[in-house]
Input
Amino acid sequence: MMKTKYDSIIIGGGPAGLAAAIKAKELGLKVLLLENRDVLGGIPLQCLHPGFGLHYFKEDLTGTEFIYRFINKFQEMGIEHFTNAHLTEIENISDNEKRLKVITSKGLQNFTTKTIIYTTGARERHLYEIGITGKRFPGIFTAGEAQTMMDIYGIMPGKEIVIVGSGDVGLIMARRFALEGATVKAVIELMPFPGGLTRNVVQCLDDFGIPLYLSHSVRRVEGRSSVEKVIISKVNEKLEVIEGTEKEIKCDTVVVAAGLVPYIKILEKIGVVKDPATKGPIVNEYLETLIPGVFTAGNALVINDLVDHVVEQGELAALGASEFVKNDGIPASRWIRVFRGENVRLLVPHYLSGKRDVTIYARVRKPMKKVTIRFPEIGKKMRLPVVKPAEMVSVRLRKEEIQKAVDRITMEVLSNE
Amino acid sequence: MEKKKVVIIGAGVVGSAIARVLSRYENLEVTVLERNIDVGWGTSKANSAVVHPGHEDDQKKYPLRAKFCAKGNRIWHSWAEELDVPIKWPGEIMLAFSVRDLEKLQYYLDLAEKNGVPDVKIVYQDELRELEPNVSPDAIAGLWAPTAGLLAPWDAVISLIENSVDNGVKLHTETEVKDVVVEDGKVKGVQTNNGFFEADIIINAAGLYADVISKKVGINFDITPRKGEYYLIDEDVKERVKRIVHQVPTELTKGVYISETVEGNILIGPSAVNLPLDAKDDVSTTEKYLDYIWESAKKLVAKLPPKSSVIKTFAGLRAEPPSGRWIIEAYDNPKGFINAAGMRSPALASSPAVAEYIAKELIGKKLGVELVEKKNWNPYRKGIKKFKILDDKEKERLIKENPKYGNVLCMCKEVTEAEIIEAIERMKKIGIKTISLDGVKFRTTSMFGWCQGSFCRVRIARVVANYLGIPEWEIPVKDGKTSYGVGDVKAFFNTKQGVDEA
Output
């Protein structure tokens, strides 16, 4: 067992983790990164499609290109790391000392660190969580598993595909299957609007003639020894099934893209408090959780729409870790709580100090045109032509604005009409 | 010494328990035939996993169930130790919500005495809530049976077969009995898709298909598939039960149970629905009965885990005999044919006692075979080392010895590459021809957790593929017919474009 004290240990070598590690090292911290898989890069490695980096690099890159810019930089900087490393336990010894237990092929390792940046990404919701019944067949995959199969391992999961869920992951996988010569029979969406970005609906479905069934629920998967068809029904505005609207779609493969959940079980075990809306930790403006010295970023914090936001968050968490190490904690005389107001489904961060500018990342509950984003307590307003649940709204609040608040700031999304 | 050839049809928990008991004898040559690619894949893999105490069956109605359950329950204590099968003994509480239910508790308390089930008693308010803090506030009393246990039923089968094979039993998977050959009123053997197996004694433990086998020798009954659906809940939920909690049984079923499995998950179910005789492969779940189970479970406990913590729903089929009576018999005609059929609940608990009975009473006495004990019979079998539950020193030692222990593939259940490889080696050792992802799953609990394999299945498939020297997409998932993928990504594309033909 070895013992070295780090300033910051980053858990997870995807975009948030790599960006955090690079930034932390640049800020002069002693850094270690732990990655569970055999390679660095995380999910973007298997994203062969473009749309990455438009904000961060002002370029349109594929996921693979995007992440290799970080991997290459990380490696050039010689940042200490382990791949195939599995974190089993965090022991929160004090605000300034955390002990990590890690399984690696070189043996069990115990590391101590002042701060942790937790960037493990998200887990996919699967069939059983969304109430689909039927047999447990081979041929039912989550979108992420199907993507890993195709674009890391070169395995074709099936030939006639039904995709459950029209979030970006579902849309992108529809196109991915179509590009490999599979027939995508349908994308099924429970809500009356698509879950993903408009550009993805156009480029992934419309351009390939793939039908999208809005306001439909997948009821059952049927077949004898493998998937043969799915049964879908229409739903009403309360999302209840309308009896008598059953329709079957023949297929050999069902791909479930029913959303993501932050993967933070180990953080929960040390008492990190979760936000029921984001299902990720409650954090302050440095993305520090309610356990001092434990930071989080990327999809482990909140399910993001763009990888650009993910790396921004990684860098912010690194800045937080650096402040923490310098000052023995995040200095703040008071914390202003940010609340969700009308048509705001979720937002991060939850607490602001007023000592620095902060970007609020939020998602709306329902789509709306011509809206005003309003923070009544500080008198801030901005207009947007359109908001959608699929697209995060990010708003920069200047510290002078935040300072106007007494103890709370509410974010509202209101119609101009 | 003249050796008797014994063929056991079916490698479920009943067939496997019989195989183990018969492997003790020098003069028996035992072969187990299983139609699936792996063992324990029928009724044995999807049930409540309860080692019942034995106080729920009335001797008058179900004489064999009443006779063997308590005894089997006792034997499981020593078997689990010998076979290194994880087992626990939380005890069970049958809950009463009304005066009528209370009368039922009294009825089962009387049965406990008749069936020789120890320490069963009715508990009220404080004692009830001390035994199970999460019991429903509406419960007025409970029948406490401290001898109830839980095990992973597939572990039970795998361990029984491994131990049997170590003691000379031959296993033939993917071997389906087509006919039973009888001459001069005596069994001669079985015809299968895999050739003819000679036999002096044939034991029919074919589960859901035991009726089909029995009809081949003119002993007619039907086995009805009775479906039970279940929810499996994430191991980290706060809303738990210490005991096995269930409602007062009905004619059809022992009712809905809530328990904490040996893996630490919460299991809720089953329903009980008779299916048509030709629906012996219908293990689909249904909205209707899953809803029924959830509503029933709500009544049992004060706090049910949230629906969002469900990691799996599944269904199993029980082999229901006419009038619920087990058919455990040796016949005069054809001589040598033994049925262990219709083994619905409590078969898991009873299987060791049933196996002993078949050996001593049916083979020994009824068929008059003198049973000669082996001198070198080995009762012990070690399970696959579960890395997750070892202490740090042992983990450290194992990684040093084999770095594959340091490669955790299944994050949720912390299963290492070394355990995956050991599972494959063990499958090969007992004679399994088709190595499948489900075979690996049941032996290691990988792909069993929160993510249901969406992170790790592909990585585990690579380990299996490398070991077997086949492409990953070809790895069977559930049976020999279903593979993980349909081909190589580009090969499929090329075929479709006619490139391959060019």
